[in-house]
Specification:
Number of helices: 6
Radius of gyration: 16 Å
Shape: globular
Order of helices and strands: HEHEEHHEEEHEHE
Distance between the termini: 12 Å
Structural class: alpha/beta
Oligomer: single chain
Strand order of the largest sheet: 2-1-4-7-8
Strand content: 15-25%
Length: 201
Amino acid sequence: LASDIIQIADSSIKSNNIFKIVLTGGTSITNTYKILRDSKSDWEKWHIYLSDERCFPNGHKDRNDQMIKELWLNNGKIPKNNIHFINTELGLFEAIDEYSVIVKKIDKFDVVLLSMGGDGHIASLFPNHSYPEECHVVAEQGSPKIPKDRISLSYVRLNLSKVVFKVIIGESKQKVFNASKKNQLLPVNRVSGDLNNFFVC
């Protein structure tokens, strides 16, 4: 997965002088971030975005951005101005407004990384929950996992992507994923971008 990402990044930078990637949280993706941290690329051309964030205080160990910074981005190779995280500390709807302005400037992301949860959720988009279809950034105020309040890129925004990688790790998640093929309403099936790839192990 890391090798594929680097290859796409290098091609995008060569063609467009920029690479735009959406990162995901979760434990399934941590080894990928470690490999990327130690890889070679034109890091100054990378722009980092986040699929979703949990409404914890800044610096909280369970925030997605905190995990990503500790594993990878604190190495300083990617300029801070190129890292576009979700400022949940502004308040739920203020942060949504701010992040909406940021992502609406982008035509398409080059890569979106999504780690599937055990119930088939991706980002902070959960089964049987409804979200405004016209919005690029949405609120989740009834998450089945702590914290209840989260901010997520919407299905519409995630689908505005050239390549989507879905990471499904673990036997229990594989069973859910296999069953999801029969249930197109599960969140994992509602994002595909232009090209849809799966990493299952």
